[in-house]
Amino acid sequence: MGAAQDKLVDGVYGLGWAAVKKLPEPAAVALGRRIADFAWKRRGKSVLRLESNLARVVPEAGPERLRELSKAGMRSYMRYWMESFRLPTMDPKRFAADVEFQDENLLREALASGRGVIVALPHLANWDLAGAWAIGHIGVPFTTVAERLKPETLYDRFVAYRESLGMEVLPHSGGAAFGTLARRLRSGGLVCLVADRDLSASGVEVDFFGSKARMPAGPALLAQQTGAVLLAATLHYGETPKMYGRIHPEVEVPTTGTRAEKTAAMTQAVADVFAWGIAEHPEDWHMLQRLWLDDLTDRQERAQ
Asked: Angle, to 10 degrees, between the axis of helix 218-226 and the axis of helix 177-186?
């Protein structure tokens, strides 16, 4: 991406942030749907990849059902963006009314233990809204990690936006994030990580909807190294503006096995929770990229 294109992309996002946050909520909802339907009708690479991913999640679905799911999925994805653009201007008191978590006591009890808490989430519904709920409703700030985006100015916008909500945001690259996360956990803090896709060499292979995928080892490694409680959470949308979530029971460190074996078992346990949540609400899973290893292999073979 050249400098001129970088500037254009950053400008488009900046315009979205500035304009959408000023719209009345019904207008923002309607705009998001129109953009989603336009993108869906174009049948671009992202839409086709979303359908391919959904075909693994709902293997019994025929072409018509997959198209219905991908249309709903694009609307859900654009709802995420419309909400995210507006989040910094929302009254934090709304989070208690607009976001409802099942078994939120598991999170509160884990925080009260003083061990530190890691919450792992998939790309379901609006994970930023879930974070704002934790800060505004539970009253606990947290630390997270963000992938460096291109252009750098766009990454800076995302960091500033999330920090405006009360989050501490660390860059994924550079190698220092793990140590900082460990320190936050040892002091009893909260760490939230989106953890359903990892294409790095350090990712852990898991069985995910019957095929192999790679997910981050970080949540399991942090729990082992710091003694923190590892919880998985799943999310789904209701009618605007409601979002629902569930805090799942602790993923415990196995009592036997090597570090690698323990990490593999814990990451698979997290993947199983994610799979349950995604299967319950596939239209809210915003995975518009390749995830499964055989999809990645097919792409590499075609490039040769």
From this structure: 40
